[in-house]
Each structure stands twice: as C-alpha cells, then as structure tokens.
Specification:
DNA-binding; 11% helix; alpha+beta; 3 helices; eight-stranded antiparallel β-sheet
DNA sequence: CTTTGGATCGTCT
DNA sequence: GACGATCCAAAGG
C-alpha cells in the first residue's frame, strides 16, 4: 500500500514511488518532463513530452493488458518507471512509461515530444520530415526519431545507463492541460484519457480538438 | 486543408 | 487467420 506518493505535492521524476500511482495520475504529470535518449555511440537525443495517453489493466478494454499478461505485454505488469515498447502495424514502435505497483498493469503512452537536442540526428532517422514538428509528433514518429525499439523494452527510466531516461528540468506540467478521448481507440470505451500541452505545435495533428486547455 | 486507402508482420485466438 | 494504442502519399476541395 502506497501511503505517500507525492510527499511534496510535486511529483519527483527520480522517485520510484511516484510511478506506482495510477496511469491517469501519472500521465498528465509527465507533461513537460524531458525524455533523454543516449544512443549506443554516445549521441544524446532529447525532447519535452507534450502529449500522453493513459492505459490501464484488467479495467481497460483498450489496454494490451486487459486480458492478462502475455509474452508481449509482461513489462506492463512489472515495476513502475520502466519502459514498455511494442511493435504494431508491421512497422511502428510505440513507447510507454509503466506505472502502478509491481504486479498491477498500467502505462502511459508517449504520443509526442518537442525535440530539444539532437535534431540533426533525428532528421536523419526520419527521412521525409521537413520541419522539427514532423520529427516526433506521434507515437510511431517519436520512436523512430529517438531510436526506440523493442530492444529497449523493460529499460529502467530512473537509472542512468539504460539508454533512455526521464528528467525534470524544472518546467512544471501545465496547470490546465488539453484533455480528450484517446486516439485510435474504439468509440465503445471512450473516456478522456489523453492529455497534451496546450498550444504546443508538436502535439499530433488529430488532437488540437476541443479541450479544457485552449491555446 | 481534409479524406482515403495501402503498407506490413508480430501477436493472440 | 484476423487485426491493430500508426504513418504517409495521393487525390480531391
């Protein structure tokens, strides 16, 4: 039982217990945190998280974990603060931050980041991208730009040396984030489990729709 | 600008 | 054997 998740009222990205919260709590909190990728050759790529979605476990029909653990989704049942990467549509990878206590499935899909470091490398990895907003404005694009694939599944985002890390540069999450139903989820189970940074151009196209955020 | 359909393969039934 | 937590190019307004 978690008694105190956010002792100071301001979640600490380096604190494991923060990731034992539910995905609907962790998701909006991740907005404006920085995702840092260290490539095998030492190159650093980074971007500010501007769009996320929450996925649950046995309570969420839209979640990979809805019908229990499988070889593919087992990372979702592991400890919070780790990365869950899956491959879909025969060509795209998507990255998630695992949350909830170990044994309980839950994750936050990283849908978009605003590139900060390594733009040149990202353009190389994403031929066809013209503008910086083409680099990581979507879950598949984000993974392609930052070199994230299934090899990083299970990586610990709170430990240096795992290749991918979460950092807090002091920018707080938006006080009133954009909020809408999730993208690509059947209308039958639509609830507003998607959040974004209002006004950020890197938010994926399908989402500058109505919200509580405004510009 | 919006809409539409094809690509492509690991995973689970 | 069917179907994606998607992306992109092409075509139409």
């Amino acid at each position: 039982m978690i008694l105190v998740a956010y002792p100071s009222g301001s979640p600490d990205v380096s604190c494991r217990v923060s990731f034992e919260e539910r995905p609907t709590v962790v998701a909006p909190w991740l907005l404006n945190k920085v995702l840092v990728r260290t490539l095998p050759d030492g190159t650093t790529l980074s971007g500010r998280i501007v769009e996320v979605e929450a996925y649950g476990g046995s309570d969420d029909p839209a979640s990979h974990a809805y019908r229990g653990p499988t070889k593919r989704n087992r990372t979702m049942f592991g400890p919070g603060g780790c990365l869950y990467v899956y491959f879909t549509y025969g060509m795209h990878h998507c990255a998630n931050v695992v949350c909830c206590p170990e044994g309980v499935a839950g994750a936050v899909l990283l849908r978009a980041v605003a590139p900060i470091r390594g733009l040149e490398e990202m353009f190389t990895r994403r031929p066809g991208a013209r503008r910086p907003t083409d680099l990581a404005s979507g879950p598949g694009r984000l993974c392609q730009a930052m070199g994230v694939d299934r090899d990083l599944d299970g990586a610990d985002l709170l430990t240096a040396g795992s290749g991918l890390a979460l950092e807090d540069d002091g920018t707080p999450p938006p006080g009133m984030p954009g909020n809408s139903p999730r993208v690509g989820v059947g209308a039958a189970h639509q609830i507003a489990w998607r959040w974004w940074v209002p006004g950020d151009r890197n938010v994926s196209k399908k989402g500058l729709t109505r919200s509580a955020g405004g510009a």
